[in-house]
Design brief:
The protein has 225 residues and is an alpha+beta fold. It has one domain: NADH Oxidase. The chain is built from 8 helices and 4 strands, in the order ααβαααβαβαβα. It has a 4-stranded antiparallel β-sheet with strand order 1-2-4-3.
Length: 225
């Protein structure tokens, strides 16, 4: 698939088939994505691929902890709640998703169930936990590098018929993820990518988020025209 077509067609998938994803497919995805650029070619990333019983334990315990009122315990510093235009965009996509799923504004049980789906990594059959070497903290540069790897994973997966959603909710309790996946203490858990074959019958999968016009965020400096 041509790159522009790949980028334009890719979307976040929030409903997955229960069909397992073969290890060889994931290995091929990572082989493609690892060509992502990194600062000075440092390649600071690690990928921990979970499926089956370990993934089920992570999502169960993560969900139980969050339902029980446990505090978020992520390795990276959070920005807190979004405000201003960022909050507006967050609310806009939530309205689209709830509309597609038929979740009314006052339907608290269904809205809560949607939040829990995020904590369960949307019940995807595979989760790729992305980490970086702790020695590189404070991590602005390696965060950028992992972002490049992450997007490479998402595009390579889509090219092979797999959907994904970059899912910070799935690692709200990074201590649980570290314990179950046996992630070394010298690695910082940054985010995860929930992945699987898209369920075309899941209404939210058809939702596309809006993007600002280039004029809203792009400046051209020094061009004759």
């Amino acid at each position: 698939m041509e790159f522009e077509t790949l980028v334009q067609s890719r979307r976040s998938v929030r409903g997955f088939k229960k069909e397992p994803v073969p290890r060889k497919v994931i290995e091929a995805i990572i082989d493609s994505a690892k060509r992502a650029p990194s600062s000075m070619n440092t390649q600071p990333w690690h990928v921990h691929v979970l499926t089956g019983t370990p993934l089920e334990e992570v999502r169960r315990r993560n969900m139980e902890e969050m339902i029980g009122g446990a505090k978020v315990k992520r390795d990276i510093v959070s920005h807190g709640e979004y405000q201003g235009v960022h909050r507006t965009r967050q609310v806009d996509i939530a309205k689209k998703l709830f509309g597609a799923m038929g979740i009314a504004r006052d339907d608290k049980p269904m809205r809560q169930d949607w939040v829990l789906r995020g904590f369960r990594q949307f019940d995807a059959p595979v989760s790729l936990v992305l980490t970086y070497d702790r020695v590189l903290d404070p991590g602005a540069v390696c965060h950028f590098d992992l972002g490049a790897l992450c997007y490479g994973i998402v595009l390579a997966a889509w090219d092979r018929g797999l959907g994904s959603v970059i899912n910070g909710q799935g690692i709200m309790r990074s201590d649980i993820v570290r314990e179950v996946a046996k992630i070394p203490e010298d690695e910082v858990i940054m985010t995860c990518v929930a992945m699987g074959y898209p369920d075309d019958g899941f209404a939210a999968n058809a939702v596309r988020s809006d993007r600002e016009h280039n004029d809203e965020f792009v400046r051209f400096v020094g061009f004759a025209d």
